[in-house]
Description:
Blueprint: H1 2-38, E1 43-44, H2 46-59, H3 64-76, H4 91-100, H5 105-111, H6 117-120, H7 123-149, H8 155-175, H9 180-183, H10 199-204, H11 211-216, H12 233-243, E2 247-248, H13 255-265, H14 282-287
Antiparallel strand pairs: 1-2
Amino acid sequence: MRHFRSTSIFKLLFLLSAYLLFVFSSVSVTAGVHRLWSHRAYKAKLPLRIFLLFFYTMAYQGSVLHWVRDHRVHHKHCDTDADPHNSKKGFFFAQIGWMLAKKHPDVIAKGNTIDVSDILSDPLLRLQNKYYFHVVFIICYMVPTYIPTLWGEEAWTAFFVAGVLRHLVSVHTISLINSAAHIYGTKPYDKSICPAENMTVSLLASGEGFHNYHHTFPWDYKAAELGGYSLNFATFFIDVMAKIGWAYGLKTVSEDLIEKRVKKTGDGSHPVWGWNDKDMPEDDRKSAIIS
């Protein structure tokens, strides 16, 4: 019985460590290479930058330089031939196909016009870009494999669960931002663009499913107007880092600007909190039954 309990504790510890590596590598994409380095939505001190860079490398999604360049092209030429993961080519292409296909000439041409001088001026990011393929397999697969062996887990089990499975789940949950959040959902901020509000994606991808808002206001560190921490773990992470002084200069959007944009370009789906909300449609107000 004692041996069984001991084994169960170690198995639980193994699963917990694999889950934490999944969380850290995923949030390093959403809060790190996305909100910090691609959009400059906040600033980070050296300890946080090192943390995010290490776990972003574990996420195995390319060097920061290449990710940022492609993402900035995506925002400037969203869902066109110049968009690396153009959702108009279908769900599969936006989810994973674009990683397997040759880049459209427009993606390359527009990518060459993108300013990435801020990335190139950062010694840490230059170092990561230079040695990326020398270290990525070690950090993505070997480190997660080695850690559980410290308490007796089998190496192959650790490799496939904490290494391969964690990596695949992380890649596909993050990729839902490019696919599902560009195809399914409402558009309360700008009905003229493909990105949409998708709560399922927000839940699975650390808060990145408020995508119509994000493409309308890409400099907001929250990447969302609404939704608590339960639907936006990346915002929770950044706020915690700000509390301990590792994150600062957090940028956001005024309620007045949001209201103006909703009324000007939204599809009418902007949520209301209840009666007398300023966004409540007049027709809803008139048709309400008050007894």
